[in-house]
Structure formats: structure tokens, C-alpha cells
Amino acid sequence: MFTVSTAESCTGGNIAHLITEVPGSSNYFKGSVVSYATEVKINVLGVPAELVEKYGVVSSEVAEAMAKGVRRLLDTDYAISTTGVAGPGDADGVKAGTVWVAVCSRTEVYSTMLELSGTRTENIQEASRLAIRFLQKCFDVELRVNG
Known about the structure:
Layout: E1 4-8, H1 14-20, E2 29-34, H2 38-43, H3 49-55, H4 60-74, E3 78-84, E4 98-104, E5 109-115, H5 120-146
Parallel strand pairs: 1-2, 1-3
Antiparallel strand pairs: 3-4, 4-5
Helix pairs in contact: 1-5
């Protein structure tokens, strides 16, 4: 059985919540870091400050570094991360509803950008649901490639 961890910013722990609602999730879910503040991304997850400065906190580069960091920190096979702006307003020049999701395995890192248009709560829920679906797709790809 593969293990999973999460590093969540704009989803605020909702992905971990959805995962742990499933009976038996303790067999594969190790934990989560809710890295809402930039300093937690840098100091706990090990996201290089240079990435934040160069690309912004809402970027594929930061999402991927977050996923790598939590996977390494909690020693899991897979990790999901989210960073974005849930809304209702834009922040730091980033449109509300923009969310980067990354999935990291022991060998690969995948990322995708979501452009959501709901309320803050709807954006958090949709980003969480789509992040889990993205993990499943990445897992399927790796199974096909690596057997």
C-alpha cells in the first residue's frame, strides 16, 4: 500500500479532512502540514525563499517544492500540495480562484493550475476535490509507466 501526505495552503487542511473521512485512511495517510503562511512553506517544508521571490507564492514552482517538502518530511510515497487564492478578492496580483496543485512521488513531480470561479468555500471544496482527482491521475500514470 502506498502512503500519502498533504501540504495545504489555500485549502487549509480540507484535503486532509476529505482523505480522513474515508474509513481505513489511517492505513495510507500519514499527515498534513497546513502551510498557510509563507514562512511555514519556507521554514517547515523547505521551499527555497528564492522560488517565492522569483515566481510568487502562487506558482507551480512553489506548489511543487511544497509537495516535495512534505513528502520528504513525512516520508510518504506521494504528496499533494495546494497554493492559491481562494477569494473572494484577488491577492498579490493573483486572480481569486487561481490554485496550483502539485503531486510528488518518489520519482516524479506533476503540477496543474486550476481557475475556479465560485465563492471562497466553493473554491476550497472544488480545489480539494480536484487535487485528490489529480493525485489519482498521477498515480494511474505512474502505474502504467512503472508497472
